[in-house]
Specification:
There is one protein chain. The protein is mainly alpha-helical. The chain has eight helices and four strands; from the N terminus they run βαβαααααβαβα. The strands form two sheets. A two-stranded antiparallel sheet has the order 1-2. The protein is globular and about 55 Å long.
Length: 197
């Protein structure tokens, strides 16, 4: 779901902002059910309840990535709370973990980034359909996973941007310039703008 606010309203709130067109605020795609999910994703869906809902979120969110790893190895013992931070620790310190854990952790991390890139590509196609003259898009990403560091390979945000550029090229949108920024309390600010609209 996307809430669009006309730029004129943003300018009234913050006259210094030089914006035009429509501003997407507080984007929510967690309840999307992407194709090609695995039986491991089905296990995570069952474990967390809310069966059949928030499938995209359960496949990409830092809150669930560790549980995808745990569900991949159901006979092995892991800490009860095992989130993306623990998953990235496996990737960052491969010498103290089983090689198969390290490989699967990289796969889960990369898949999450690719799915996020695909969702952003869909958003950009939607924005382009509203305004064919769109050339620059600025997004704000909040969350420790998006800005996480992978010391042995590419960081999550770089993986997202590379896949996003690849997808935009495939859709003939090489001319679109995308910037992803970090901002504290982005969700809160976005909700505030939506409430004021």
């Amino acid at each position: 779901m996307a809430t669009f606010i006309p730029a004129e309203k943003i300018k009234k709130l913050k006259p210094a902002y030089n914006v035009q067109g429509l501003i997407p605020v507080n984007l929510e795609s967690g309840n999307f059910h992407p194709p090609f999910l695995t039986t491991v994703d089905d296990t995570v869906d069952t474990i967390f309840g809310n069966l059949g809902k928030q499938r995209f979120e359960k496949a990409v969110s830092g809150m669930y990535l560790g549980d995808i790893l745990k569900a991949t190895f159901p006979l092995d013992e892991f800490e009860e709370k095992f989130d993306a931070q623990k998953l990235t620790a496996i990737m960052n310190y491969p010498d103290i973990h089983k090689e198969v854990y390290v490989q699967v952790a990289h796969w889960i991390y990369n898949r999450s980034a690719q799915l996020v890139a695909a969702s952003l590509a869909g958003l950009i196609l939607l924005l382009k359909s509203y305004n064919e003259n769109t050339r620059k898009i600025c997004l704000v990403a909040e969350g420790s996973l998006f800005w996480s560091e992978n010391r042995k390979d590419k960081n999550y945000n770089i993986l997202v941007m590379e896949k996003l550029q690849e997808l935009l090229d495939e859709f003939g949108l090489k001319d679109i310039e995308v910037h992803i920024n970090n901002m504290n309390n982005a969700n809160l600010i976005g909700t505030g703008f939506a409430a004021l609209a």
